[in-house]
Write a structure and sequence with these properties.
Blueprint: E1 17-18, H1 22-30, H2 45-51, E2 60-62, E3 68-70, E4 84-86, E5 94-96, H3 97-103, H4 109-114, H5 117-120, H6 126-129, H7 132-139, H8 147-183, E6 193-194, E7 216-219, E8 225-226, H9 228-235, H10 255-258, H11 275-292, E9 316-320, H12 326-341, E10 370-372, E11 383-385, H13 397-405, E12 410-412, H14 426-432, E13 439-444, E14 449-454, H15 455-464, E15 476-479, H16 487-490, H17 492-501, H18 505-508, E16 533-537, E17 550-554, E18 559-568, H19 574-599, E19 636-638, E20 654-656, E21 668-669, H20 699-702, E22 706-712, H21 718-728, H22 756-766, E23 771-776, E24 780-783, E25 789-793, E26 796-804, H23 810-821, H24 836-854
Length: about 900
């Protein structure tokens, strides 16, 4: 039996490869591209550059003063491109006219003469991009906090986390009392042994996959481990965690289906395995579990049977990870200091306030501090806080904390003004990236399948746009590039630039954010991957309905900030628009056929609806069916016969079915957070109009700098949102463009994107609507934990995001973690990757240590709470 203790791991899945063309190879030569064979050789890029300098003629000329002057361009390392401009500041660097025009389009010659890009610290030649010196300097510029700031921040952390600490302690004390009853001993005589584990291991509950932080039960004969929540539920006969595996089947019908053609196979909605049947079977599994695995009368829990992962021989004994009474002592210490500080509870805190006019009954948006994003009746939260970098209000951290605590999105404008001006052009990033692999996996937003593609070819499509053979826009996404956890390593200069431009660095700085609780984990502890992560995707100005470049409705388990670093407009021709409209009519007819015959009902309004179309993707089409023989175990399968190809659906594991016709190329289903069934209405926002149901003008598309359309839902609206999606799920499409067969969790599945029409109907039926706004170039969007959101790209966009754990929203992180437990065992969202409870314990410990050292050092020494390792505190001294 395999223990649930495990480290982070990567899953390699073969994909189809699109070879690079001679055009890309020539581009590499022209840019003096250094093709490093491995990452270690990247550090020697300067030496390689010197070896590869092309000296067509002499690189020296006689100047007016009679001295020899070099004509070598610093950017391209050539001397045969004509006139060069020499920097008057350093008097050493020169740039030729072609390089100035190509790589610095927004910088006039006069600026080069005054101070060259090297002097400005934003040179994007390949040698400078890969130099470690400046990047390391920028990344290691430690944020300085005054003693007063540290004191106030520590108080803020303590008062925010004290309720959660009390809850943890209560759960543990209850389990200790049960242990005393099991052993028939008083509390003072019960000895709880420490569990053996490695510092860089994450310990998970074998039944619900939740992270184990301290007290838990472990089998005396095998390695089975059970969290306290499962222990409580098992004794109550009401296990909430889902032990079933839910799988969904999608069959590829070919590219014709994507473009609205008829399919001869019976639609999946006529299958026998319905969403209702599926959930009944999952409930039956829970009943079966509790019937054969029961606690003893005294509360002791035996190890579960072998078919449930246990050994059925031993007994689950109580074990601890920290010292036995560490949390209890920590709580006593926290309460004492909180009383001395006279700390108020967070929800009654009068210090957190808002000076926005909307809360004073004045709809005054002068000065750009607010941006209207909703049209709810009798609501005071239709506007979102929207300060600019350098604004006086931006320095008011309490104002920011108020909106974050209330669960409202925040938009900070002009954040790139605080950066050094390094180019985020895709070709610059491509040349800067320290990796030998020239291909990457990209997601086709039409069929939600991945294909392996040359990076240069992808970026070329980003700049110029791509259309398939049917004339439909081919919208591709490159998520988390460079790979997760390697952004600062592969793109050190860009990583440093991103950190420099982040607003509210007390929360967002990846290394030194004092109020980012995730940074309080010890150095020897396995930390969650919070970024930064880059998301590069094509965009289209109008809502297509199928194949749109979208991030589907989802949660982020923590708070997050997303910065739009670059945009590129794609302007279709009249002929292309005409072809798109013709295909939309095919999509509309297909929706009418399938939604009527499959679901026996038609959506009340499918205005200008546009189903799915495949760009000239190598995957041929869509198919949808269900396994009538196995209603209790629906499977996600690929109909492609290509051997050794595996497919993954977002949120669920995928298996091969080897059905359908042979395909010329193979693709794989991936974690897809783009595309959906949308309505092709052009969307706009006006102060004096409702956001839904009207054919508004195209202001969103024409707005200068607008790159991404966001919809963020309020926390209190989530139950109604989930109810709407569960009710209408058959009207949405997913992998291969197939209608959704069932819903496991409307948000955690990441299979829904609400189009303009669906948002209109959501408001009409349930009276709720999201905050809807356009993110412009250089804007940072803050999304609090617990707020479902979706995004559609209006242009090709490069977004960089970083997650953080704020004291204000730890309760939402805990709530989401509890939701993960109830997902099926094979659901991708089930794993507790954040480990927020562990973060809370270490954050409280460090805050108390600081408060005790600075203001409340006592001479009695009667409270001796355990503390984190000394490495916990090094960053903040």
């Amino acid at each position: 039996m395999q223990n649930k203790r495990r480290k982070s791991e990567e899953k390699d899945i073969p994909v189809v490869m699109i070879e690079s063309s001679s055009e890309e190879e020539e581009a590499e030569k022209d840019d003096n591209y250094v093709g490093d064979s491995d990452e270690d050789s990247c550090d020697h890029s300067m030496e390689k550059m010197k070896k590869r300098k092309r000296k067509v003629g002499s690189d020296k000329t006689i100047g007016g003063n009679g001295k020899m002057e070099s004509k070598m361009c610093h950017q391209c390392q050539r001397n045969d491109k004509g006139r060069v401009v020499c920097c008057s500041k350093c008097k050493a660097k020169r740039y030729c006219v072609p390089c100035m025009t190509r790589w610095y389009p927004g910088m006039p010659e006069e600026a080069f003469l005054k101070a060259c890009p090297v002097c400005r610290h934003n040179c994007n030649c390949i040698a400078c991009l890969r130099l470690d010196g400046l990047a390391k300097h920028l990344m290691n510029v430690e944020m300085k906090f005054s003693d007063e700031e540290k004191l106030e921040y520590s108080k803020h952390i303590l008062r925010a986390l004290l309720p959660a600490l009390e809850q943890f302690n209560t759960e543990q004390m209850i389990e200790k009392e049960i242990e005393c009853h099991i052993k028939g001993l008083p509390d003072s005589e019960v000895n709880i042994r420490k569990a053996k584990y490695e510092k860089d291991e994450r310990i998970y509950c074998n039944y619900c996959s939740a992270s184990i932080v301290d007290l838990h039960r472990s089998c005396s004969s095998c390695s089975y481990e059970l969290c306290l929540t499962c222990c409580k539920e098992l004794r109550n006969g009401n296990l909430q965690a889902d032990a079933s595996e839910v799988k969904v089947q999608y069959i590829d019908y070919g590219p014709g289906y994507l473009h609205g053609k008829h399919c001869s196979i019976t639609p999946a909605n006529n299958g026998t395995c319905t969403e209702t049947t599926e959930f009944k079977l999952r409930d039956q599994i829970k009943v079966a579990v509790t019937s054969k695995w029961k606690p003893k009368e005294n509360g002791a829990i035996p190890c579960p049977p072998k078919d449930m992962g246990g050994c059925s021989k031993g007994t689950l004994n109580l074990r601890c990870i920290f010292s036995e009474n560490w949390i209890s002592q920590l709580l006593l210490k926290a309460k004492e200091i909180a009383q001395k500080c006279k700390l108020k509870e967070m929800h009654n805190d009068s210090e957190l306030h808002c000076s926005c006019p909307k809360y004073k009954g004045v709809n005054d948006t002068s000065g750009g501090k607010l941006r209207k994003a909703a049209a709810r009746e009798n609501s005071d939260d239709n506007y979102v806080f929207c300060p600019a970098v350098g604004d006086a209000q931006l320095a008011n951290l309490k104002h920011f904390q108020y909106h974050l605590f209330k669960g409202e999105p925040i938009i900070v404008t002009n954040v790139l003004d605080s950066a050094l001006g390094l180019s985020w052009e895709p070709m610059v990033m491509w040349r800067a990236c320290r990796q030998s692999k020239k291909t990457t996996d990209v997601l086709n937003c039409l069929n939600w399948c991945e294909l392996e593609m040359n990076i240069h070819q992808f970026f070329k499509g980003y700049m110029e746009g791509r259309f398939d053979s049917y004339g439909w826009p081919q919208l591709l996404k490159l998520n988390d590039w460079p790979p997760s956890g390697l952004f600062d390593e592969r793109l050190p200069r860009h990583g440093a630039e991103f950190s420099c431009c982040l607003p509210f660095k007390e929360y967002t700085h990846p290394q030194y954010g004092y109020l980012n609780l995730a940074l309080r984990l010890p150095d020897n502890c396995l930390k969650p991957d919070l970024g930064p992560k880059a998301y590069i995707a094509y965009g289209f100005p109008t809502e297509l309905g199928r194949g749109d470049s979208v991030t589907k409705l989802h949660y982020v388990v923590s708070d997050t900030v997303n910065v739009l670093m670059h945009t590129q407009a794609m302007v279709p021709t009249v002929e292309q628009l005409s072809a798109i409209e013709n295909l939309k009519q095919n999509h509309k007819a297909q929706d009418q056929r399938e939604f009527v015959t499959g679901a026996n009902r038609m959506p009340r309004r499918i205005k200008d609806s546009v189903p799915n179309v495949n760009g000239k993707s190598d995957l041929e089409g869509l198919n949808f069916s269900q396994d009538k023989q196995n209603c209790d175990s629906l499977k996600v399968e690929n109909s492609n016969k290509a051997e050794n190809m595996k497919y993954r659906q977002q949120g669920l594991k995928v298996e091969n079915s080897n059905k359908g016709e042979n395909k010329k190329n193979s693709q794989r289903v991936v974690k897809a957070d783009c595309g959906t069934n949308k309505i092709g209405e052009k969307y706009q926002y006006r102060e004096d109009s409702s956001l839904f149901g009207q054919n508004l003008s195209e202001r969103f598309e024409e707005e200068d700098g607008g790159g991404a359309l966001w919809d963020v839902f309020r926390r209190q609206d989530v139950p109604k949102l989930e109810e709407y999606l569960t009710k209408h799920f058959r009207e949405f499409r997913h992998i291969y463009g197939s209608p959704l067969p069932q819903v496991v969790h409307p948000i955690h599945d990441k299979t829904f994107y609400l189009s303009t029409e669906h948002k209109r109907r959501l408001k009409e039926e349930y009276g709720i609507e999201p905050w809807t706004f356009v993110q412009k170039l250089g804007e940072a969007v803050f999304i609090p934990a617990g707020c479902p959101h979706q995004i559609r790209n209006l242009k090709s966009c490069i977004n960089v995001a970083v997650d953080f754990v704020s004291p204000e929203n730890v309760n939402e992180c805990i709530r989401l973690t509890e939701e993960f437990r109830k997902l099926p065992r094979n659901h991708d969202a089930r794993e507790d990757k954040l480990e927020v409870k562990k973060i809370i314990l270490h954050a409280v410990s460090q805050a108390l240590d600081h408060l005790e050292k600075t203001t409340f050092r006592t001479t009695e020494g009667h409270i001796a709470a355990g503390s984190s390792s000394s490495s916990d505190k090094q960053k903040y001294k």
